[in-house]
Amino acid sequence: MADQPDPAAAARDLQALLFDWDNTLVDNWLSIVDAMNVTLMAMGHRPWDAAEARRRIRRSMRETFPLLFGESWQEAQRIFYERFEAAHLEQLRPLPGAEAMLERLSAEGLYLGVVSNKRGDLLRREAAHLGWERHFGRLIGAGDAPQDKPAVAPVEMALEGSGIERGPTVWFVGDSPLDIDCARNAGCVAVLVGPADLALDVVGQSLPDLRVDDCTMLVKLARPD
């Protein structure tokens, strides 16, 4: 593991933050798991409990569904999105402190973007529903770039037009090992957000450079008073 950066020095150099979406800024988990289990059962698979769902629902659909459903993956995709789109906006909730954090960081002149493995049009629909699109330079979801997270391509797309290059002045903020891997691949600072026991999820994986409990703590780390 590389030497961890000094938090104060990392904050002084900070120019941009790229965020994961689900379970980092918003809670849409019930809709995602419900649609996934409806799909699994329709395709003859057993449903997943909450723990298995959290472990397995991380990569984009175009990577995972062909492995799960073989030649029938496009039918599985149709079933998933039909179920998900019926209720995802009604069940969408900002995580505590997320809206205030985005207001503060954008007011400070930092460039903000999103890199998610949620389908790009659905991601932008959710951001618009919350009135958050004004905070972000770009919102990049699955299918928008030639490859999905943890590849570098969506990170570069999220920074397009900002004049900021991927590297140590960019923090990549997320809640899973996949987000840490994406930060590593792009040469960014990996910031893990979530409760302390979340660190158990990354045992044997790349460890984050910085860790915070929640969005409120992230503001204090990025812009200490």
Q: How far apart are the first and last residues' alpha carbons, in Å?
A: 30 Å
The helix content is: 40-55%
Number of strands: 8
The CATH class of the largest domain is identified as Alpha Beta
CATH topology of the largest domain: Rossmann fold
Order of strands, main sheet, comes to 5-4-1-6-7-8
Residue-averaged pLDDT, rounded? Answer: 91
> Mind describing the biggest β-sheet?
6 strands, parallel
**What number of structural domains do the residues give?**
2
Give the C-alpha Rg.
17 Å
The count of helical stretches stands at: 11
CATH superfamily of the largest domain: HAD superfamily/HAD-like
The sequence of SSEs as H and E is: HEEHHHHHEHEHEHEHEEH
CATH architecture of the largest domain: 3-Layer(aba) Sandwich
Structural class: alpha/beta
Shape: globular
**Unreliable parts:** none
Give a written overview of the molecule:
By secondary structure, the chain is α/β, with parallel strands linked by helices. The chain has 2 domains: 7-27 and 93-222, HAD superfamily/HAD-like (Rossmann fold); 29-91, DNA polymerase, domain 1, CATH 1.10.150. The protein is built from 11 helices and 8 strands. The chain has helices spanning 7-13, 29-42, 50-56, 61-69, 73-85, 88-91, 98-107, 120-130, 153-159, 177-186, 215-222, and strands at 16-19, 26-27, 93-94, 111-119, 138-142, 170-174, 189-193, 210-212. The strands form 2 sheets. A 6-stranded parallel beta sheet has the order 5-4-1-6-7-8, with helices on both faces. The protein has a two-stranded antiparallel ribbon with strand order 2-3. α2 (29-42) runs antiparallel to α5, α4 (61-69) crosses α5 and α7 (98-107) runs parallel beside α11 (215-222). The protein is globular.
